[in-house]
Write a structure and sequence with these properties.
10 strands; alpha+beta; two-stranded antiparallel sheet; eight-stranded antiparallel beta sheet; 1 helix
Length: 118
């Protein structure tokens, strides 16, 4: 009986750990050093939590500040690994509109469609 309980507990803890790791892979923290436009919404400079849901070209990305969603925008997720360990943020030629955010293991490329502001 005791062995069965311990086995069940270990299984539950292992499954919970896997779910936590899977969920956290779609969450990153970035710092924007200048006002940045995500489609038509301007984000002030500062730290944001970036959350995304979906894969490929069907990704919805939310920018949160102090646990509050500031903007949600469509994007494309590219999971091609990169050799650069630093987070890169690319802007359009006007220097304001966000084109993509690149991490070592993935890139979010922002679509030019309308964003939803919350």
């Amino acid at each position: 009986m005791k062995l069965r309980f311990i086995t069940s507990l270990l299984f539950f803890l292992g499954a919970t750990s896997l779910l936590t790791m899977a969920a956290s892979s779609n969450k990153r923290i970035i710092t924007l050093y200048q006002p940045t436009v995500v489609n038509d919404i301007t984000l002030n400079a500062g730290e944001y939590t970036v959350l995304w849901d979906g894969t490929g070209s069907e990704v919805q990305v939310s920018f949160l500040r102090k646990k509050r969603t500031v903007v949600t925008a469509p994007a494309t997720l590219d999971t091609t690994p990169h050799s650069d360990y630093a987070t890169s943020v690319a802007y359009s030629t006007d220097g304001k509109s966000l084109l993509f955010i690149q991490w070592k293991d993935s890139t979010l490329k922002f679509n030019r469609a309308d964003a939803q502001s919350d």
